[in-house]
Amino acid sequence: MKARIVTLPGDGVGPEVTDAAVAVLKAVAERSGHTFEFESHAIGGCAIDATGQPLPASTLEACKKADAVFLGAVGGPKWSDPHAKVRPEQGLLALRAALGVFANLRPLQVHPALASFSPLKNEKLKNVDVLFVRELTGGAYFGAKTRTEDAATDECKYTVAEIERVTHRAFELARDRRQHVTSVDKANVLETSRLWRSTVQRIAADYPDVKLEHQLVDSMAMLLLTQPSRYDVVVTENLFGDILTDEAAALAGSLGLLPSASLGAGKVGLYEPIHGSAPDIAGKGIANPLGAILSAALLLRHSLELEIEATTVEAAVAQVLSNGPYSRDLSGNATTTQLRDAVISALDDVATPAFLCGLRACG
Ligand SMILES: NC(=O)C1=CN([C@@H]2O[C@H](COP(=O)(O)OP(=O)(O)OC[C@H]3O[C@@H](n4cnc5c(N)ncnc54)[C@H](O)[C@@H]3O)[C@@H](O)[C@H]2O)C=CC1
Ligand SMILES: CC(C)CC(=O)C(=O)O
Ligand SMILES: [Mg+2]
């Protein structure tokens, strides 16, 4: 197949991990007979420096025309002045809204070789397989903001339609997994959460084969760390999902490991590791690229519908996690490019005839 992929490397470690993900996608294309065309555009802080805008019109136009968009990360201290009028993160939020990618899928699995990096004991890490479905284009990140000398507000608003569409997505995904959805809110305090809960409860009636439970977000933050194997699909609003998934990354062993896919009703998906621009390690060539590479696997699966290729990349990453090398966040000393090369070399070990033969072209 032929696909056009727009890359938005962004700031900090964004370009480093994007390079690794693109190299893996190119290695997949070479081995399986597909043609992937890449086109890089500016977003975030580097776009502010170049154009004054965190999401230049040319970047958005290219993303809308692409088959899929891959993003590294945006932001950093250079653009973090509290009085700044434009901020890198605004570019990413505007892109998510413009592409209509309301469902942010963030899968969590714990590789057995990394159990010692987790705050939990081996026994509790067994069978951890959670799919977070985070609402991505509503809530406090998108509400009206006000600021005076001595006060500030961020409106948190949700419409029934916004809750319904992400809830449907979560239940559909649960049907193909273990038929269990946990909806996380703060319905004991927040009006938006009471609307969230009643809407999720109503939609659940359409999926009698899927069990629904509700959990308040504060206790969920605790349960995630104490009983992670209890959860299958976790659906929640934008801010809660952002925080809970960084917490979940600690179970996996590093924030550098978790991927994400942001999907909407349209055809273009946005793929990014869940971490930020990691200014403390940027430019050193030591960022863990595996979350970015696993995001590339999600791109193959969800936007290009190349399931064999996606599972092959995931198997190659799993082999690297079993045998090493390991990056600094996992107490190794492998660089970003060494990890990239290890995954590409593992592709050849795990490749099946279906992956190698040109696939659909082979019939
Ligand atoms: N999607 C995006 O573009 C996101 C951007 N950000 C932005 O990133 C900047 C830094 O935010 P932080 O709160 O420091 O979060 P962060 O995710 O950038 O870093 C948190 C910690 O995790 C480590 N880390 C992150 N990714 C890593 C990787 N691939 N390999 C090894 N270690 C890794 C960092 O070194 C740091 O110690 C801020 O400007 C923030 O707004 C934050 C989150 C998401
Ligand atoms: C706008 C982003 C910086 C929010 C975030 O942290 C994320 O989506 O993970
Ligand atoms: Mg985040």
TrEMBL record:
Q: Which residues bind Mg(2+)?
A: D218, D242, D246
Reactions it catalyzes: (2R,3S)-3-isopropylmalate + NAD(+) = 4-methyl-2-oxopentanoate + CO2 + NADH
Q: Gene3D superfamilies from the xrefs?
A: Isopropylmalate Dehydrogenase
**What subunit structure does UniProt give?**
Homodimer.
What is the protein's name according to its record? 3-isopropylmalate dehydrogenase
Q: Where is this site: Important for catalysis?
A: Y141, K186
Protein task: Catalyzes the oxidation of 3-carboxy-2-hydroxy-4-methylpentanoate (3-isopropylmalate) to 3-carboxy-4-methyl-2-oxopentanoate. The product decarboxylates to 4-methyl-2 oxopentanoate.
Q: Which UniProt keywords apply?
A: Amino-acid biosynthesis, Branched-chain amino acid biosynthesis, Cytoplasm, Leucine biosynthesis, Magnesium, Manganese, Metal-binding, NAD, Oxidoreductase
Any one Gene Ontology molecular-function term assigned to this protein's record = magnesium ion binding
- Organism equals Dyella dinghuensis
Q: According to its UniProt record, which protein family does this protein belong to?
A: Belongs to the isocitrate and isopropylmalate dehydrogenases family. LeuB type 1 subfamily.
Where is this protein primarily located?
Answer: cytoplasm
Q: Which SUPFAM superfamilies match?
A: Isocitrate/Isopropylmalate dehydrogenase-like
GO CC terms of this entry: cytosol
Matching entries from HAMAP family are given as: LeuB_type1
What general EC class does the enzyme of this chain belong to? oxidoreductase
Subcellular location per the Swiss-Prot or TrEMBL entry: Cytoplasm
Which positions does UniProt annotate for substrate binding?
Answer: R96, R106, R134, D218
Entries under Pfam families matching the protein? Iso_dh
Q: Which cofactor does it need?
A: Mg(2+); Mn(2+)
**What residue stretches are annotated with the Isopropylmalate dehydrogenase-like domain?**
4-343
Q: In which pathway does it act?
A: Amino-acid biosynthesis; L-leucine biosynthesis; L-leucine from 3-methyl-2-oxobutanoate: step 3/4
Record-annotated residues binding NAD(+)?
Answer: 76-89, 276-288
The EC code for this enzyme is 1.1.1.85
| Binding note for cofactor | Binds 1 Mg(2+) or Mn(2+) ion per subunit.
